[in-house]
From TrEMBL:
Reaction catalyzed: [phosphate](n) + ATP = [phosphate](n+1) + ADP
Name the UniProt record assigns to this protein: Polyphosphate kinase
Gene Ontology cellular component list: polyphosphate kinase complex
Annotated binding of Mg(2+), by residue: R371, R401
Organism the protein comes from: Adhaeribacter arboris
UniProt xrefs under HAMAP family: Polyphosphate_kinase
Gene name per UniProt: ppk1
Amino acid sequence: MEENKKIQSRELSWLAFNYRVLQEAKDASVPLLERIQFLAIFSSNLDEYFKVRVATLKRLIQLKKRTRQKLAQDPSEELDQVLVEVARQQEKLGETFRNQILPALRAEKIYLLDEKTLRPEQEPFVRDYFALKVQELLKPVLLTPEVNFFFLKDQTLYLLIELTQAGQPAATAILEVPTQKHGSRFVALPTQQAEHFVMFLDDVIRFNLLQLFPEYDSATAYAIKISRDAELDMEEEVSENLLAKIKRSLKKREMGYPSRLLYDSATPPLLIDAICRLIHITSEELVRGSRYHNFRDFFGFPDFNLTHLKYLPQPALPHPELHNQKKLLPAIYQQDFLLHYPYQSFEYVLQFLNEAAADPAVTAVSATLYRVADKSKVAKALVKAAKKGKRVTVIVEVKARFDEESNINWARKLEKAGATVIPGLPGYKVHGKLCLVTRQEKNGPVDYAYLSTGNFNEKTSRIYADHGLFTSDVRLTKEVQSVFQFFLDRDSNKQFRHLLVAPFNMRNKFVKLINKEIKNAQKGLAAYLILKMNSLQDEAMILKLYEASAAGVRIDLIVRGICCLNPGVKNLSENIHVRSIVDRYLEHARVFIFGNNGNEKMYIASADWMTRNLSRRVEVGFPLFDEALRREVRHLIELQLRDNTKARTIQNKYLRNDGKETRAQFATYSYLQNLYQAVESVPAASQ
């Protein structure tokens, strides 16, 4: 990182974050099978990075020179830096796998075999398995001189095969490794005396190559994989049906421009040249890799029921006050409740929605859906509410990258059930997480709201660390109602006093709150900011933080991913401290705390400080009015600020100290577990 740069490269900062994921795979204190999962996460992240960010850089390079000169950095120069760093990380990935993961597996009597290390007694099983389960899935293509083009599917593993026969010129073939059709990338072999054996599906194929090409004497296979541009090519016009446009763009995605061809570094240069000609790419798209690609397939690595090689289970905890509530709405009428995922159960959200669907007094349900589970219980509850005759309004963001098709399917099911479905907004993505339930009470209608930092997704709620608030506080519910009304009437003059809503008032409100800290510091009063987010990229907000630092405001940032701010630089950011936590769960919550001269203000939000979040998305931040809930979140933030186990600088140096070991995520679970147990230990009569 360049010390004299005010704004660091977004692309290189993201790569630094992904290296923190790889650090978890390298960390011997992490259970072995969990380390393998981090290899998969690293690989999956990098695939998406090439499909989106590298593809974007290549698009920028194609712009006219005059246009490129207006950019903060020359995209060609930045792409060169990116590819150098990717090459370094790919090398580290290979080293980690070969020198750490494989030996650790062997120490646990788990052997990852290839076609050359099979034991003689195992060979019949592999031959039979290939003949019965694999061979019919393969469609090899001999690349004869008549073949002048071959299309490689996006993110699909292929074997490029060199064939030789005595007295004949070498031949080349290619075949797709049928991971999806097979159901897994791995084949478990029979266990022998407590020893476990597994092979890559590609190595099973390698071992049996001459069964596919019996007329040749030898066959050697090298893995290749292509990543294609995933940006949707569409204009968001009101005049055309957005759902239909998304559908068309999804079909184009498979045909997207190549952003990377990953190849085995052992591949003969002549074979590389041949495949480049066939798929019509240049050497600029080539990325050197190792024997195995698509490490994301390690999500499916067999665990052989070896539970000691995984993290100890942390079952989702009941909420201390909600766990014995048969009906949530009456409880929420009395007070606010805050949930912390994945430490506490997401089931309360499902209970909230299903209760609303079944309650005859509930007249309306509104919700925003950005990413939902494949068999979403949330969406099913909304369908049920619509079928029960409730007035259901659902904003389904059909532009949520890589979830477009799933969201379109749910949009159609909701429409069929009678719901009013709004497929996002032209020019904006709807990223705020909101639900509003209206119930007819004795004295008139009452609104109940759920506001969250995370998606309505019961699956990811088990691994994403988020906060969710249940409230009937009219200060919040009235403004949540205004957000939903905006989706219907598109009136851009909505006013919000308590909620922070992008693109309306969120940016300006954050700036005003920072300015207040600056003024307090200039008056000699205590002034500080504690800001937790996934990404910090917006230049205007970064410059405002530099201004606050120069005024003497103490700034603590907890930023998991991209951080384009340069901390700790003399005369620029001396008072800014940045830490990043990567651990068992994905830190996903956004929390913004402002000192306010001893009367702290705290907001929780769906938005990061990226230009897209503050200016081109509908995002929602909300204050915590309840003092007990503020103390609870403040304690959790303090745990993260004290973390000396999994906290790192944005240069990926661990933040160690001589104090008592603190691991924020584990300490959070213990804290919330103690809250629940303390309530449970009180006799029922005194509760």
